[in-house]
# Entry
Amino acid sequence: MKHITHKWWKITGTILIVYVIAGGFLFEVPNLPVVQQSIRNIYFHVGMWFGMLFILLVALGFSIRFLLYQLPEDDMKALAAVRTGLLFGALGLLTGMVWAKFTWGAFWVNDPKLNGAALGMLVYLAYMVLRGSVEEEEKRGRLAAVYNIFAFVLFFVFIMIIPRMAAASIHPGVDGNPALSVGDLAPEMRKVFFPAMAGWFIMAWWLYSLLFRSSRIDHRISELNNN
# Structure
């Protein structure tokens, strides 16, 4: 019983995702022009991207903390969070491409929002390349932490600021297109959409914790081998 109580958030996250998958495919959705039944993808595409933004914010916090206190575990936590964010970002791009194919007729269109998202992912991939190019652990941690701070700012600029400054965008939430403002989401969809947000947040944190524990074990094994 104690073990179940300790893992309540994992159980909750699993139940939420199962509910979202079932509700996403089976519950009623409004029959809108163009998007039609593909609107169900909002529970997955948007949820994964929100989960990505959440975990990248976590990575930012650990990078700042590392610069303040120089604790190696904070660097490992930031790395695990970025890896998680990249996975969720990749899933978000894939689900978005599938959605684009059904609504716009192509997997990718020349849109500032889509291009900004791709550039943002490249910025974080460069974070991984930077880490692999520096061997000295303390120096690598400092450089990665500083870069991660700038990466988060650039990512925000690419996906939020530049698309809104562009002449036009067909992506929802930009240039007056409806997205998630009050009244945009049909009432019958809210009972799945909001649990989806919570579920993907929990899944992102769960995967991050697994990656961090794995990297911590690898680090300790490396230390023992060096000794």
The helical segments are 2-6, 8-26, 42-69, 72-104, 112-132, 137-165, 187-226. Residues 187-226 form the longest helix (40 residues). The chain has seven helices and no strands. The mean pLDDT is 88.
